[in-house]
Write a structure and sequence with these properties.
The protein has 88 residues and is mainly alpha-helical. It has helices at residues 19-29, 49-52, 58-63, 69-87, and strands at 9-10, 34-35. It has a two-stranded parallel ribbon with strand order 1-2. The longest helix is centred in the last third of the chain and has 19 residues, at 69-87. The radius of gyration is 13 Å and the shape is globular.
Length: 88
């Protein structure tokens, strides 16, 4: 994935969604290749499931201290925004 400029991934279906996984993935492919995804409705168990559950966005925002604030912004919104912009 790191070798292909137009290839990226979201982490919606990752079974081991954790800071360790995000660290290993961002080290391997770079933070510009990763998008936070919830894969709703597949994982959806109510509005709180992405705020307080194991798929919560705050894992990236609060528990991934190895990422800079700019990299966190990329994973949580910037990469998806760039992807959508490039699709039109």
């Amino acid at each position: 994935m790191a070798r292909h400029p137009n290839l990226s991934c979201d982490v919606a279906a990752v079974m081991d969604f954790s800071p360790k996984f995000i660290e290993e993935l961002s080290t391997a492919v770079g933070p510009r290749k990763i998008m936070y995804g919830t894969d709703s409705p597949y994982w959806f168990k109510g509005p709180e499931s992405y705020r307080t559950g194991s798929r919560r966005w705050s894992i990236i925002a609060e528990e991934c201290s190895f990422l800079s604030e700019a990299d966190k912004q990329l994973l949580l919104a910037g990469n998806a925004e760039r992807f959508v912009r490039n699709q039109s």
